Amino acid sequence: MIEVLRQHITNRLGKDIDNLDIVLTKFKPLKTSRNQQILTEGEICKYVYFIASGCLQVYTHDSEMRETTRDIVTEDHWCSELISFGSEKPATENIRAIEPCELLAIDRKGFQEMMETVPQFDKVYRQILEASYANSVYRINTFVALSALDRIKWLMQNRPTLMTRVSSKLIASYLGINKDVFSRLKAKI
Predict the structure, then answer these.
(1) H or E stretch including 48?
(2) Which of 38, 59, 158, 159 is an S-S bond match for 95, by CB 3.0 to 4.6 Å?
(3) What pTM did the predictor assign?
């Protein structure tokens, strides 16, 4: 599993990375089962996760306890509740494994040591932050303007594997569409 992370980092930073082996020892492997809760709203997020395999859901609950999915994160990507992780304040989101996962987790102390030990990792961290921000802003700006049908078409074009990989209920939550409307519109495409 650690080799997947090594490859991920070297793909972004090149093969000549001082202290990479030391940094990789800061990650602890974690295997999850389907539907296992990784982080619950109100807890402090103590880890940043690299997904070696599997799929995570980042979500919140509204006042009626309905789930709203902010993101579905798949392998070769990073996942965390970054605000809680950075501030050490309670998380406002939940993270759940929606498939069995192999994760590599690094805690705050290890993450800070990694940033100091491998200064180039700052580039990867910026990529994590930028991707998270860009994804959130894009979804907010685009989804507000798109019809439900256009959201489904967007997903099919930009993240096609999710259509066969996760439940229709979860996709509907991610797209901000009622699951019955999602099923009806999907059948039209």
Answers:
(1) strand 47-53
(2) 38
(3) 0.88
